[in-house]
């Protein structure tokens, strides 16, 4: 599947999300995010890679309003959402959802799956009360979980199944943009592909736009159309997937590519290791 | 009979945990051997028994778990029969271990120098002054800047990568013959991971240390290992040298794993194949193959009867009825 046709096609296509010189400084001079700008266009996946502490998760949190930017603007559908009150943000939540890394701690262990999925539907009045049960069934079907899951608790599910529930919750509000913050990092290798494929299929079915945040280059390459590379709070390189992987310009991108292990023992001695200071 | 080339031989190891539901066997009949200077990787998912195998070998299992059978022969001696003092003399000296979490495996209230010197003084019988000098030398070797200053630091002052270098320095300080590394780079960034892997390789080549590398990351395996052991649900399902395993995997689980990792070295946008389902939660009671519920080739026989690990090629062993049928192999692996 190729998404090449709707990449960077700026003529006529409005970006769904625009970050303008976004900054997040913490006291004691920590510049977690230091002047980041990029656009995400409808229907595309922008991969955001970087190592721990590079500021990639902080960007995700600022977009969904879980962190307040120190400076800069976040435009969603043309509207500045960086200074919204929590009540105004609440209304926007239905269009802007996040899937977290750890499916073990992001579901309330005392609620059944039916209630976990019904909750956002009720809060945001997505469907009339009488239709909620049917909508929960539809969501489960969407993420390929059996209907019998409804009456079970989160602990009865494996990590991959829990991540499906997390995705179903994010989908329940029919969002336009989903921030996927390391959605497969906590999962076993044999399960990761299931979730990556689900995310790709759902994108096609529902015309979703993703910001896919991860440190593993393999997963990012598989799902993204364009990729932004972060280092120490700044975007050091952004481009379409082929450019980043075949013709990286920035030394940090090159170092990251060199350092990523390739699952082919025949290639092991062909790489040179570049040291990354800091 | 012991093959003199074998530094270490694990033979039919079986380890279980006591639980409310009875004994849960988490390592079931695991056998392998290691030569000096060789890197053997154990790959598997969480719960496959790879870490418990390592902990059993080092006799570091917690209470509630016990070794139920088998042997761990180190230079011909069965480690499982040694008394605690004899085991202490080997552990940290001839066999040492690096853990995944460099934060939690260093003592936060003791300086790096104290922790480094402790094992050198005990095992190499050096004086405090000599041990200090060897520790500084070791820190230099693992590429840490300002080793004298780091000796006086506490763990919190170091980054994750630096702490893992300290752990490696500590593990290598007594020139062990076997180094067990349990997910040594999983908590680290890829650029740091690459440096740490390179460092481990160099140190071991220099001293002839054999590495038992435990990991879930097939990329790390491809870069580091000479031989690979694939574990699934407590059992070894395939063993081969690293090139054979990646080129010609015989077990459907290994095949599935290799197809399910996104590749960095190809531009193929084809959909990743994924292994359906998940590892069975309780597998001791399964009579047949433990991969049965996820296997594309499963037959009645697989459901009814557990396959044995059999020869499916030169130094290539697989636990699968279908692979045996294709290879015509019936010869069970005999670790004699």
UniProtKB/TrEMBL annotation, chain A:
Keywords from the named record: ATP-binding, Nucleotide-binding, Transport
Record-annotated ABC transporter domain positions: 17-257
Keyword Flavoprotein recorded: no
An annotated Gene Ontology molecular function: ATP binding
InterPro entries named in the record: AAA+_ATPase (IPR003593), ABC_transp_ATP-bind (IPR050319), ABC_transporter-like_ATP-bd (IPR003439), ABC_transporter-like_CS (IPR017871), Oligopep_ABC_C (IPR013563), P-loop_NTPase (IPR027417)
Superkingdom assignment: Bacteria
Family: Belongs to the ABC transporter superfamily.
Annotated protein name in UniProt: Oligopeptide transport system ATP-binding protein
Species of the source: Fontibacillus panacisegetis
UniProtKB/TrEMBL annotation, chain B:
Keywords: ATP-binding, Cell membrane, Membrane, Nucleotide-binding, Transport
SUPFAM superfamilies: P-loop containing nucleoside triphosphate hydrolases
GO BP term, example: peptide transport
Transmembrane recorded as keyword: no
Cited Pfam families: ABC_tran (PF00005), oligo_HPY (PF08352)
Location relative to the cell: Cell membrane
CDD domains: ABC_NikE_OppD_transporters
Cellular compartments per GO CC: plasma membrane
Main location: membrane
Ranges of residues in domain ABC transporter: 2-258
Domain of life: Bacteria
Topology with respect to the bilayer: Peripheral membrane protein
Ranges annotated as spanning the membrane: none
Molecular function per GO: ATP binding; ATP hydrolysis activity
Protein family per UniProt: Belongs to the ABC transporter superfamily.
Protein name in the entry: Oligopeptide/dipeptide ABC transporter, ATP-binding protein, C-terminal domain-containing protein
Species in which this protein is naturally found: Fontibacillus panacisegetis
């Amino acid at each position: 599947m190729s998404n090449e046709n709707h990449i960077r096609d700026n003529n006529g296509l409005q970006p769904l999300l625009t970050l303008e010189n976004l900054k997040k400084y913490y006291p004691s001079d920590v510049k977690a995010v230091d002047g980041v700008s990029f656009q995400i266009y409808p229907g595309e996946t922008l991969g955001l890679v970087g190592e721990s502490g590079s500021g990639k998760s902080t960007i995700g949190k600022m977009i969904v309003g879980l962190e307040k930017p120190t400076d800069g603007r976040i435009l969603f559908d043309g509207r500045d959402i960086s200074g919204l009150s929590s009540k105004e943000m609440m209304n926007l939540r239905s269009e802007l959802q996040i899937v977290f890394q750890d499916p073990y701690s992001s579901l309330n262990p005392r609620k059944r799956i039916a209630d976990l999925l019904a909750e956002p539907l009720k809060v945001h009045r997505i469907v009339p009360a009488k239709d909620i049960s049917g909508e929960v069934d539809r969501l489960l079907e969407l993420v390929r979980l059996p209907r019998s899951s409804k009456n079970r608790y989160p602990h009865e599910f494996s990590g991959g199944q829990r991540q499906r529930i997390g995705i179903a919750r994010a989908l329940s509000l029919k969002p336009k943009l989903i921030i996927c913050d390391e959605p497969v990092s906590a999962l076993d290798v044999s399960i990761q592909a299931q979730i990556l494929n689900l995310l790709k299929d759902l994108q096609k079915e529902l015309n979703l736009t993703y910001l896919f945040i991860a440190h593993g280059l393999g997963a990012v390459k598989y799902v993204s159309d364009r990729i932004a590379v972060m280092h120490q709070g700044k975007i050091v390189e952004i481009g379409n997937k082929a450019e980043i992987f075949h013709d990286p310009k920035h030394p940090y991108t090159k170092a990251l590519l060199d350092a990523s292990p390739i699952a082919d023992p025949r290639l092991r001695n062909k790489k040179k290791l570049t040291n990354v200071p800091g | 009979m012991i093959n003199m080339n074998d530094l270490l031989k694990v033979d039919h190891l079986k380890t279980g945990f006591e639980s409310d539901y009875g004994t849960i066997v988490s390592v079931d009949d695991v056998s392998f051997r290691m030569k000096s200077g060789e890197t053997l990787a154990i790959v598997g998912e969480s719960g496959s028994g790879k870490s418990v195998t390592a902990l059993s070998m080092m006799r570091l299992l917690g209470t509630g778990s016990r070794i139920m059978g088998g042997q761990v022969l180190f230079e011909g001696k069965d480690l499982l029969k040694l008394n605690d003092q004899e085991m202490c003399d080997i552990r940290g000296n001839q066999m040492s271990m690096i853990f995944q979490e460099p934060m939690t495996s260093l003592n936060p209230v003791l300086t790096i120098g104290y922790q480094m010197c402790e094992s050198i003084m005990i095992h190499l019988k050096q004086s405090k002054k000599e041990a200090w000098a060897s520790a500084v030398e070791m820190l230099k070797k693992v590429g840490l800047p300002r080793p004298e200053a780091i000796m006086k630091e506490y763990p919190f002052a170091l980054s994750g990568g630096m702490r893992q270098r300290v752990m490696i320095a500590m593990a290598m300080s007594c020139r062990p013959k076997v180094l067990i590394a349990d997910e040594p780079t999983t908590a680290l960034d890829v650029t740091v991971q690459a440096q740490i892997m390179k460092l481990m390789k160099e140190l071991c080549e220099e001293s002839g240390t054999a590495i038992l590398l435990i990991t879930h990351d097939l990329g790390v395996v491809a870069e580091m290992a000479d031989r690979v052991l694939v574990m699934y649900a407590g059992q070894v399902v395939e063993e081969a040298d690293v090139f054979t395993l990646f080129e010609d995997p015989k077990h459907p689980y290994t095949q599935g794993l290799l197809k399910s990792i996104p590749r960095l070295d190809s531009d193929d946008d084809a959909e990743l194949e994924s292994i359906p389902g998940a590892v069975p939660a309780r597998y001791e009671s399964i009579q047949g193959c433990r991969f049965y519920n996820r296997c594309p080739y499963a037959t009645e026989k697989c459901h009814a009867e557990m396959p044995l690990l059999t020869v499916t090629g030169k130094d290539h062993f697989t636990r699968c009825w279908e692979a045996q049928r294709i290879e015509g192999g019936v010869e069970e692996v005999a670790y004699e």
